[in-house]
Design brief:
Largest sheet: none
Number of strands: 0
Radius of gyration: 21 Å
Order of helices and strands: HHHHHHHHHHHHHH
Number of domains: 2
Number of helices: 14
Strand content: under 5%
Distance between the termini: 34 Å
Shape: globular
Structural class: mainly alpha
Helix content: 55-70%
């Protein structure tokens, strides 16, 4: 297991701040996790000869994770039930833990990957083919995370992009993600995968300007109004054909406006008495020079999006 990335000692500070932000804001993300954890504390005895109750229990757990994390397994038919059966086929809870840990221990090994449930496809699409299900590595990693009580790294697009930010390296897939996050965990010594998940999630949300799960509705409304007024001022200098209001933007574009607003205006969260969130944002800005697109106005980004039909 090798890596070329440079470890930054400030990451430990970011992890501590991410934990404090969770305590300060009582974010919905943490509340959702607690609800899912309760479901994993409901034990159903494994019985190879009569396992429908076990499959149903796994199905409920996966469905709850899919709902709160928006993994969108509904894109294929029968996918969550298919996954439930295949997880159950691994064996009882202890065998499932062994299975997931085996892959995490040696994720870059081809045979280990091919033997793992992460390599499998689930469900089927409308146009039936021999193999037309989908890989569901994000949902599986979250199932493993809760099965192992937080001692397993969550893999999804947000975590992947945040890891790339931390290590300044491109991550191709779940195999390279797990290979690198193990190295990062070793460098961070006393911090757990749960700590890293919280950091990767918060860093990703801050970078995107997506604060709806981080702060309460009252503070989000203040943030939205402030960003809208800021954006209106930015639009005044533009040509009439490109002038926009926040109401005309897509959700992803609104997040981008909020991201620019929080990064360019001082002490926005401090004014809301969210001191740890402000400290986390300031710390992240000081560490990562490329946390936002360089030298581009919001107006130009919207213009490019309109031209290329791409979301931010």
């Amino acid at each position: 297991m090798t890596s070329e990335f440079n470890f930054n000692e400030n990451y430990t500070d970011l992890i501590d701040l991410a934990r404090e932000v969770s305590n300060e804001t009582r974010i919905g993300y943490s509340s959702n996790k607690e609800l899912i954890k309760k479901q994993f504390k409901t034990n159903v005895s494994y019985n190879v000869n009569s396992n429908e109750n076990v499959v149903s229990n796994i199905y409920m757990r996966l469905s709850l994770i899919d709902y709160f994390y928006s993994t969108n397994m509904g894109r294929t038919f029968d996918s969550i039930y298919d996954m439930s059966k295949k997880i159950n086929n691994i064996g009882d809870v202890e065998k499932q833990k062994e299975h997931f840990n085996k892959f995490l221990k040696n994720p870059m090994d081809k045979e280990t990957y091919e033997d793992s449930i992460f390599s499998k496809q689930f469900g089927y699409r409308k146009k039936i083919k021999e193999k037309n299900g989908i890989h569901a590595q994000s949902l599986l990693s979250k199932y493993a995370y809760f099965l192992l009580d937080g001692d397993y790294p969550i893999y999804d697009d947000l975590a992947k992009k945040s890891m790339e930010q931390l290590i300044s390296m491109k991550i191709k897939n779940i195999k390279s993600f797990y290979d690198q996050i193990k190295i990062l965990k070793e460098e961070l010594k006393d911090n757990s995968y749960d700590d890293l998940d919280r950091l990767l999630w918060l860093l990703g949300k801050v970078k995107k300007g997506s604060y709806s799960l981080i702060i309460n509705r009252e503070n989000y409304e203040k943030l939205y109004i402030g960003a809208s007024e800021w954006f209106t001022e930015k639009m005044k200098s533009q040509n009439d054909s490109f002038k926009k209001s926040m109401k005309e933007l897509s959700s992803s574009q609104i997040n981008s406006v909020i991201a620019y607003y929080t990064f360019t205006e001082a002490d926005i969260f401090k004014k809301m008495e969210l001191l740890k969130l402000q400290e986390f944002l300031d710390k992240a800005k000081s560490i990562f020079e490329n946390l936002l697109p360089q030298e581009k106005s919001v107006y130009l980004i919207i213009k490019e999006n309109k031209k290329n039909s791409k979301s931010l």
